[in-house]
Write a structure and sequence with these properties.
The chain is mostly helical. The protein has one domain. The chain is built from 15 helices and no strands. Helix 3 packs across helix 12. The two termini are 22 Å apart. The relative contact order is 0.17.
Length: 331
């Protein structure tokens, strides 16, 4: 049953525009799909013990590079690949010396945290170009819709795009799960020395998954920028976004393919509920709730919501759900 769960969830998402046409619920669903893809990008490497706190930096690069290039008359069809190239180059620049020097665990997390902070400070410091903390607005085309500019006025169009991107993220997750790369990374997570002695190129394998995760996260930032048509350091970059990504992934379940989707649904619905209930009187209150819930989940539900449900179902049925696999050292 668990192998069909992504298809069932995808089918339910795809049916929404045919059943409900109100703009606000569609907007929320689009955000859930975009952020689900972002969180899935993080779990692609986070599930192997590579805890990155710098993905807010990669997302910011994807968003700002795409917007800046478009405002200088470079179509997103070219701007997005250039943004992905920049994010990939940065991930290699930071990842290679870390993996080569065997910087792992909380030391690697601190390095990536510093990376996220550096990207944030660069965006703020170059306010004459990026708008700084006030944000940045890509130029809108006349008429509201243009394939050349990747701008669409209809929510249904954006919903279809976001749904397709979300599905691609799950496909990538499952392809990795069924590849030799997963086997190599699990061996590395269990014992780097033993993996190296067995002939695994530890640095290269880690760099592969980090590069893939960073590029996909940058694409999520570019997609978010094209949809919202406004970006700021608080919404697409920096330490806050990096921690939000980790929080949502942990809440949903790092070791399950739909963990990011569940995490996105929980966090976005929570944020919107707090905004509706308290308005401007609770600005930043969602971060307090996130922090409290993160502690609770780490203590009582370390596998996340979906991961715990699958584990409970497996215990009842006496089977091991394929999506609940984790590195051998955690078994």
């Amino acid at each position: 049953m668990t192998r069909y769960l992504p298809w069932i969830v995808g089918g339910l998402f795809a049916a929404v525009p045919f059943l409900y046409h109100e703009p606000y619920p569609l907007h929320i669903l689009i955000l859930i799909l975009i952020w689900s893809f972002t969180y899935t990008c993080w779990t692609i490497m986070g599930r192997f013990g590579l805890v990155s706190l710098g993905h807010g930096g990669f997302m910011g690069i994807g968003a700002y590079a795409t917007a800046l290039l478009w405002n200088h008359d470079v179509t997103p069809w070219l701007g997005i690949p250039l943004a992905l190239l920049a994010a990939g180059a940065l991930s290699v620049l930071v990842g290679y010396p870390c993996f080569r020097s065997r910087i792992t665990g909380h030391y690697f997390a601190l390095v990536t945290l510093a990376l996220s902070g550096i990207v944030l400070q660069v965006i703020i410091a170059t306010r004459d170009v990026t708008g700084g903390s006030l944000g940045y607005t890509p130029r809108r085309v006349d008429g509201g819709s243009s394939l050349w500019a990747l701008q669409f006025a209809e929510k249904e169009t954006w919903f279809a795009i976001a749904l397709a991107v979300w599905a691609v993220g799950l496909v990538v997750w499952h392809l990795i799960d069924r590849s030799m790369l997963r086997v190599a990374l699990e061996a590395i997570a269990d014992d780097e020395d033993a993996a190296g002695a067995a002939g695994i190129n530890v640095t290269l394998e880690k760099l592969k998954i980090t590069l893939l995760s960073a590029v996909m996260t940058a694409f999520a930032g570019a997609l978010y920028c094209q949809y919202q048509m406004f970006i700021s350091p608080d919404t697409v970059s920096g330490i806050g976004i990096s921690l939000q990504i980790v929080f949502a992934a942990v809440v949903g379940g790092v070791f399950v393919s739909l963990g990011g989707t569940f995490g996105a649904a929980i966090t976005i619905l929570l944020t919107e509920s707090l905004r509706i209930l308290f308005g401007t009187n609770a600005v930043g209150f969602d971060n307090l709730v996130y922090g409290t819930l993160l502690v609770v989940f780490i203590i009582f539900l370390p596998k996340g919501v979906l991961g715990s449900l699958l584990a409970w179902g497996a215990a009842v049925s006496g089977k091991t759900p394929p999506d609940a696999r984790r590195p051998s050292r955690s078994r």
